[in-house]
Amino acid sequence: MRVPFLDLKIQYESIRDEIAEALQQVLDNTAFAGGPFVEEFEKDFASFCQCEFAIGVGSGTTALWMALSGLGIGEGDEVITTPNTFIATVEAISFCGAKPVFVDVDERTYNMNPDLLEDNITPRTKAIIPVHLYGQMADMDRIMQIASVHGLFVVEDACQAHGAEYKGRRAGSIGDAGCFSFYPGKNLGAYGEAGAIVTNNTELAEKMRMFRDHGQAKKYYHSMIGWNARMDGFQGAVLSVKLKHLPGWNDARRKNAQLYNDLLANVKSVITPAEADYARHVYHIYAIRAQNRDAFIRGLAEKDISCGIHYPVPVHLQEAYAQLGHGRNSFPAAEKCADEFVSLPMFAELSAEQIEKVAREINCFLERSTPIGPHSRPCRKFRPC
Ligand SMILES: *Cc1c(COP(=O)(O)O)cnc(C)c1O
């Protein structure tokens, strides 16, 4: 039995007819760039996010960049985020002309550690981007409180957190703006590239809507310098279909995560993800931490199990950001986690048998690789290797 890291096909097959009909409607209406199918999705997605407005754009990266520049962030400003994120979070800061400033993460949730936030605020700081990594929201009450004391904007990077909650409030609805990616592999994935900004700020929403369409409210009358950042019609239609299924898919991911947690609870040398008291985690990624990560991944690959690493190199150690001058040990928690992270197969349609196989093979691999010590005794939950 093969266990892929992600299987987009199995989900597509479950909604094939709905998708075909939705795409046909776009064709029949020739509504290819922006248009009614994007608008319908925006309405539904705003309400899903407990927000007043959603603005569909071309990608999550674009959403982040637009939200920051829409809030007036630019040359000479500093924006605070975490180093263990997908590089797009930081690229968005750079493309506004601002300087990225990192704070280390909490070692259990892998999200921004609010205890370290205030030390990094300077007179140039304009905004904070908490990244809701892997589908679990950052500690938003504390971040919002600090932001409000210092007069800073908060832009949520919710690209991995569609439907995640913080004390019952949805990702994207707490900060000044929330940015989403609909890259195909995300919990809500388009069949191409797409993203969105959600907000309750009327002025920002109007600005974003104009900006993504060359700064025009009326065709060929341009009141500001904008850009072409529209969502395409096919993506709007696909996303409307898929949004209806998202709550069920997120529930399935949570159930899969629970089964992994149960089966791996006795395996002492791996650290399983922790769901904070405040959180409803939607497990975009189910990342464990393991020693000798490369051998671990190879061992599972030999058993037809595919894993990922999100992310092997934290942004402050990426070559692209060498000019910031951060060396090793700048952000010890993020670095330690980056060395140990292994993302196990995770998607809604993963079967219990597949999850059991992954847990069993992890147990067997650790047995083989540690002949003496705490793992020499087989864990009771598993058949002998
Ligand atoms: C996917 C992702 C992005 C970028 O989204 P794209 O749609 O690929 O541009 C940004 N931030 C995080 C945390 C992501 O996971």
Structure explained in plain terms:
This protein has 385 residues and is α/β, with parallel strands linked by helices. The protein has two domains: 228 residues, Type I PLP-dependent aspartate aminotransferase-like (Major domain) (Aspartate Aminotransferase, domain 2, 3-Layer(aba) Sandwich), CATH 3.40.640; 123 residues, Aspartate Aminotransferase, domain 1. Helices cover 37% and strands 13% of the residues. It contains ten helices and 14 strands. The strands form four sheets. It has a seven-stranded mixed beta sheet, with helices on both faces. The chain has a three-stranded antiparallel beta sheet with strand order 7-6-12, with no helix packed on it. Strands 10-11 form a two-stranded antiparallel sheet. Helix 2 packs parallel to helix 7 and helix 3 runs parallel beside helix 4. The longest helix has 32 residues. The chain is globular. The two termini are 16 Å apart. The model has no long low-confidence stretch (mean pLDDT 96). The site of pyridoxal-5'-phosphate has 14 residues, from helix 3 and helix 4.
Which tags fit this structure?
14 strands, 10 helices, 13% strand, seven-stranded mixed β-sheet, binds pyridoxal-5'-phosphate, globular, alpha/beta, 385 residues, single chain, Aspartate Aminotransferase, domain 1, Aspartate Aminotransferase, domain 2
Q: What's the short story on this structure?
A:
The protein is built from 10 helices and 14 strands. It has helices spanning 8-29, 36-48, 60-70, 88-95, 140-150, 202-211, 233-264, 293-301, 332-340, 352-369, and strands spanning 53-57, 78-81, 99-102, 125-128, 153-157, 165-166, 169-170, 177-181, 195-199, 216-218, 221-222, 279-280, 286-289, 341-344. It has a 7-stranded mixed beta sheet, sandwiched between helices.
